[in-house]
């Protein structure tokens, strides 16, 4: 069973780490002597393992060269990541497609360079919720990392496809109450009874299940479960248009990292465990991480048609005010 005091500490530490990193990220990219700075962002989630592996194995440094000074910032959700990307606080990194599509449709200068992972989103219910199946969800409270985030859209699209108006967020006339929060805090929120359900990425889904939660909607069942790129490599247009050679080298490092994960799953698992421990002050059980990574496919491929369909779902769920147009979002795939 999970030590809740440690989880609260982990959630607190993650917030402090993110805040301190963000403060450091405000540095002018021209600082650092003759070196040019590049700032990369990612989350302490299993589907962001390509960034963890690339950082640990030195792939970014190797590909970008000695003239580039690298800095890393971690984020709790896609909204804060995209705000940092748009402001120039970070140059590139890994994030879910939901925030990318939402921001692109509102005029953000961003480019999807590649996929990073697919799958991994799971909807679980707490032991105290009384939820044993989807039919029991009416009137319950669910949590996601952000409003309109990838996992939120997947869950709400799944509910929409059921054709039961009651099984929808109260935001669009249903009975489910939606709240948001850092996934590291979900075990404590389940224990306190503040939330009943979570649409959550790995490893947090496996951790919740290990702590007694029940899987209600699996990765295979949820909307876009295995076809949607759950995490993508993105960059702002300042990098892709003004310094395409650096964007290309960043992509090479990313490709090498994804290949490493698929060729060396045990080593990748250890890197993920160590990285998440550094970021959250929590050491994940190897069996939990193995279960989490089994739900995720690491691939650089991006199915642009699925991304557009996913974006249309965001519009139908009223996360987007206008019908989206996504031409030019995805870089040409070789």
TrEMBL record:
Keywords, alphabetical: Cell inner membrane, Cell membrane, Membrane, Signal, Transport
Main location group: membrane
Protein name in UniProt: ABC transporter substrate-binding protein
CDD domains hit by this protein: PBP2_NrtA_CpmA_like
Compartment(s) of residence: Cell inner membrane; Periplasm
A Pfam family matched in the record: NMT1_2
Coiled coil regions in record: none
Annotated SUPFAM superfamilies: Periplasmic binding protein-like II (SSF53850)
Similarity comment text for this entry: Belongs to the bacterial solute-binding protein SsuA/TauA family.
Keyword Transport: yes
PROSITE patterns: PROKAR_LIPOPROTEIN (PS51257)
Transmembrane segments: none
UniProt xrefs under InterPro entries: ABC_SsuA_sub-bd, NrtA/CpmA_ABC-bd_dom
């Amino acid at each position: 069973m999970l030590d809740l005091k440690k989880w609260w500490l982990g959630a607190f530490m993650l917030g402090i780490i993110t805040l301190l990193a963000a403060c450091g990220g405000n540095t002018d990219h021209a600082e650092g002597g003759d070196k040019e700075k590049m700032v990369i962002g990612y989350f302490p989630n299993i589907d962001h393992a390509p960034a963890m592996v690339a950082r640990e194995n030195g792939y970014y440094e190797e590909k970008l060269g000695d003239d580039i000074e690298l800095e890393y910032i971690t984020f709790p959700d896609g909204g804060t990541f995209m705000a940092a990307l748009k402001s120039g606080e970070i140059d590139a990194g890994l994030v879910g497609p939901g925030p990318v599509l939402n921001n692109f449709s509102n005029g953000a200068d961003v480019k999807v360079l590649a996929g990073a992972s697919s799958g991994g989103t799971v909807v679980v219910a707490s032991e105290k919720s009384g939820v044993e199946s989807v039919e029991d969800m009416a009137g319950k409270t669910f949590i996601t990392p952000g409003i309109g985030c990838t996992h939120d859209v997947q869950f709400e699209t799944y509910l929409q496809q059921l054709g039961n108006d009651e099984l929808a967020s109260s935001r669009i006339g249903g009975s489910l109450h939606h709240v948001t929060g850092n996934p590291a805090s979900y075990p404590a929120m389940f224990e306190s009874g503040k939330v009943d359900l979570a649409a959550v990425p790995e490893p947090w889904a496996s951790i919740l299940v290990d702590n007694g939660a029940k899987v209600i909607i699996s990765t295979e069942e949820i909307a876009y479960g295995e076809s949607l790129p759950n995490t993508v490599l993105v960059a702002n247009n300042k990098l892709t248009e003004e310094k395409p050679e650096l964007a290309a080298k960043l992509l090479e490092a990313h490709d090498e990292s994804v290949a490493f994960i698929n060729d060396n799953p045990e080593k990748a698992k250890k890197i993920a465990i160590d990285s998440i421990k550094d970021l959250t002050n929590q050491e994940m059980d190897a069996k939990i991480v193995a279960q989490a990574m089994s739900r995720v496919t690491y691939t650089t491929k991006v199915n642009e048609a699925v991304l557009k369909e996913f974006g249309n779902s965001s519009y139908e769920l009223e996360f987007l005010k206008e019908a989206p147009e996504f031409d030019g979002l995805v870089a040409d795939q070789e």
